[in-house]
Amino acid sequence: MSSWSKDMKNVCQRLFFRFMEVVTNALFWLVYHGSGEKMPPIENLLLLDTASALAHKIRTKKVTSVEAVETFIARIKEVNPILNCVVDERFEAALQDARNVDKLIESGTKSAQELEKETPFLGVPFTTKDCLKVKGMSHTAGLYCRKNVKANENATAIELMTQAGAIPLAITNVSEVCMWWESHNTVYGRTNNPYNTNHIVGGSSGGEGCLLAAAGSPLGIGSDIGGSIRMPCFFNGIFGHKPSKGIVSNFGQYPVPSEEQDGFLGIGPMCRFAADLLPTMKIIAGKNVDKLRLDEKVDIRNIKFYYMEDDGGSAMVSMVHPDIKTAMRKVILHLDKAHGAKPQKINVKKMRNSGAIWFAKMKRKDGPTFAELLVDCKGSVNVYWELIKWLLYMSNHTLIGILTALVETWGFKHGCEHHQYLLDQCTQLYGEIQEILGKDGVLLYPTHPVPAPYHNQPLVKPFNFSYTGIFNVLGYPATHCPLGLASNGLPIGIQAIAGMNQDHLSLAVAVELEKAFGGWVPPSISV
């Protein structure tokens, strides 16, 4: 196919997608328009503390761990009937853990300084998603056939958090098999956005992002193979970090990634306040923490900033919303005026192929297929029969789960010429971005092209995840930074991407942007 023919095909695809997007946006507005169910206001000041501040108050006896845990339990009981973000809890066990913490502190056997050094999050409750193992808790990954599965041990990241003194409190909702960007499954149902319950929370860490935004938890641990930390953080207006490739152990994650996918999957912190990102990374990075230079002081003036306002025009991806572009430009202006930085606009053309590159890199040479994952690799789903069952309200699977298994059978095969072409594109793109970023560069880039869609709307714009997914397969660290609310009252923000193992740079940018633009905006507050 000639270059002219390819360009015409791309233009036609883009026009068709834009037309369909206008039509479907109108249809979804007719079904879902409105503000949805109102959130109960935040009335306890403890809910507004950073996790780090809460830990300080606990070890210095200004607040007891029991008081902190009880406060967040009460908040979860307030918001969960509306949001459906928590799917399992260990409230009584957490309270007992908190009593033990308070006894330790009261005993005086260790000073506050010793406690801070050895257990920096002592007595602080935290939550995680329903695909990371927490001993005795739900471990379904949104699969109906795993609805009774409980974890028999802690995932490595969770174990490291408990060793740092943090107390597991609850498990949050995910998408089916954790491979879609709306948190909905047939085990626990659908999770609603705290800013407008007619909208999605993202996925697969959507329940986690939702709970944190609603002030139901001070700190969360998520996982991200295509944007599963950053998209929920974007849709819910909080901070989240996908670490550099291979830093945080993925042990205890389900589905278990293939050897290659293990490098794309990143377990990282999700939180309302940027100040909690770095101390959490210090903990969950474990033995790899020294690779990240997290204690190195960062001067924003010494960072070389680059930015892209969109992916360059992918035909099947939504145009970047004007409010997001405006927010990006405000960031650029701030960096210039406040720090003398001169962010450079760049155009990396291969970013237009982000979605295709991600799919190519995710292809497994030897199973399991998505149809097998839907039944916990105990056989395989007959996708055509399952689709008929879904139409008759008889299926145990979501529509997107069935369609994903169906589309997988139609796509290009592992090792074919087109597959190899996309792998080569990924290698070239990695080199191009690495040359730009080096060891002192940060790329500012949209986390997602539009604010949180209505429920089910991702079905008609499935490739919008490509803004995050591309950085999984490239391996770079990426931090989502909230930048307030769009004109429709839903959160927006951008992501900061740094060079390999330069996580300290993107984390420092998050702290800077929170100071400049305010960060998390509480959905409702009355204190």
From TrEMBL:
<dbReference type="GO" id="GO:0012505">
    <property type="term" value="C:endomembrane system"/>
</dbReference>
<dbReference type="InterPro" id="IPR036928">
    <property type="entry name" value="AS_sf"/>
</dbReference>
<feature type="active site" description="Charge relay system">
    <location>
        <position position="204"/>
    </location>
</feature>
<dbReference type="InterPro" id="IPR020556">
    <property type="entry name" value="Amidase_CS"/>
</dbReference>
<dbReference type="InterPro" id="IPR052739">
    <property type="entry name" value="FAAH2"/>
</dbReference>
<feature type="active site" description="Acyl-ester intermediate">
    <location>
        <position position="228"/>
    </location>
</feature>
<feature type="active site" description="Charge relay system">
    <location>
        <position position="129"/>
    </location>
</feature>
<feature type="domain" description="Amidase">
    <location>
        <begin position="67"/>
        <end position="505"/>
    </location>
</feature>
<comment type="similarity">
    <text>Belongs to the amidase family.</text>
</comment>
<protein>
    <recommendedName>
        <fullName>Amidase domain-containing protein</fullName>
    </recommendedName>
</protein>
<dbReference type="InterPro" id="IPR023631">
    <property type="entry name" value="Amidase_dom"/>
</dbReference>
<dbReference type="Pfam" id="PF01425">
    <property type="entry name" value="Amidase"/>
</dbReference>
